[in-house]
Automatic annotation (TrEMBL):
Organism, scientific name: Marinibacterium profundimaris
This protein's UniProt keywords: Secreted, Signal
Subcellular location: Secreted
GO cellular component: extracellular region
Cytoplasm among keywords: no
Protein name, entry field: Filamentous haemagglutinin FhaB/tRNA nuclease CdiA-like TPS domain-containing protein
Limits of the Filamentous haemagglutinin FhaB/tRNA nuclease CdiA-like TPS domain: 2-194
InterPro entries: Bact_Autotransporter_VF (IPR050909), FhaB/CdiA-like_TPS (IPR008638), Pectin_lyas_fold (IPR012334), Pectin_lyase_fold/virulence (IPR011050)
Pfam families named in the record: TPS
Amino acid sequence: MTLNRVNSDTASTIAGNLKANGNIAIVNPNGVLFEGTSKVDVNGLIATTADIDNRDFMAGKLAFTKPGNPNAKIINRGTITAKEAGLIGLVAPHVENSGIITAKLGKVQLASGNSFMVDLYGDGLYEIGVSDAVTAQLVANTGSINAEGGTIALTAAQGRDIVNSLITIEGELKAPTIRQQGGKIIIGGADTVILSGTLDVSSGSGKGGSVDARARKTMTADATIKADGATGGGDVMIWSDDHTDLSGSITATGGDGFVETSGKNTLSIGDTTRVTTRGPKDTTGLWLLDPQDFTIGTGGDISVATLQTNLAGGDITIESSGGGTAGSGDIIITDALAWASNRLTLTAARDVLVNNVVTVSGTGALTVNTATTNGADTGVSGGALKMDLDSSGFNGRIDYSA
């Protein structure tokens, strides 16, 4: 690796061409700006505000452990390309990409932090840390990042005194399968994650790749996420430690695709949400929703219309956990619900309450589990399956028809 250290009171600006057959590190504690006119073509690139000790560098230990300006930025508006299987890493408290970054079969990592280690031929960037001097972190992508058969990671290091950490994605992240090598997109570490772009790990010939997006507090996802595969759907995880708000499109078609959308306390599914895991010849994958508790119906966590529409796209499991700050572990159906294909599984930490008519027809199926039951169709033990009853009779019931 060639080390380019800039000792300046201002950020470095790269506006032209930078070409190299090897790996390049650009270090400026006050930041680096790649202008829209810049074109970088290298084996691998590290651009960071964190410095490295001379002795470590000469010994081949790529430990960037000297924090720079806590408000410094690495910004790319140009085109950065790594050779096949190369690494591109942009690391600073504030990182933005509005340009084009490409690393076929390689790794692209945008990380908010000011210390890290580098493994050029294995893990990429690791042990990413942030000092107490940093009070705000941002990773933002409005451009295009491409890593066919590789890994794209947008992360924020976790510090003790951070006031706010945010990851926003409005552009494109693409890591499709190539040469039977599935792509990966990893997003996490920030308090708040906002997904509103396109995340694509699909495959035209093999199995879809994986998307793993997590937030420490709040996740807002109205992105288009594709994990489709010709021989099998991929895996998609949307998770937060507090609240998740989902309103986008997720597809993991091809058979055995898996989508999990979780809010450790609360989970809200918007009316525009579309999740599809169906495969060939009537095979299907699974969409798992696992909040604290969950209400199906008007004013609830998902509308009946949205649930019915998405049941046409594959099996759905709603699994409440209970025991948190937001709920008791109940699953409640308040409006009339009907569907004719695929299986709906309701697994409650406490009770399943049916306060309206549930109609299952055609090839549709229903499984209800509460507390300690083991998955018998509408069989209940431990907790309770409760039907609403008033003076006129049962308001809640379950009807089956062929």
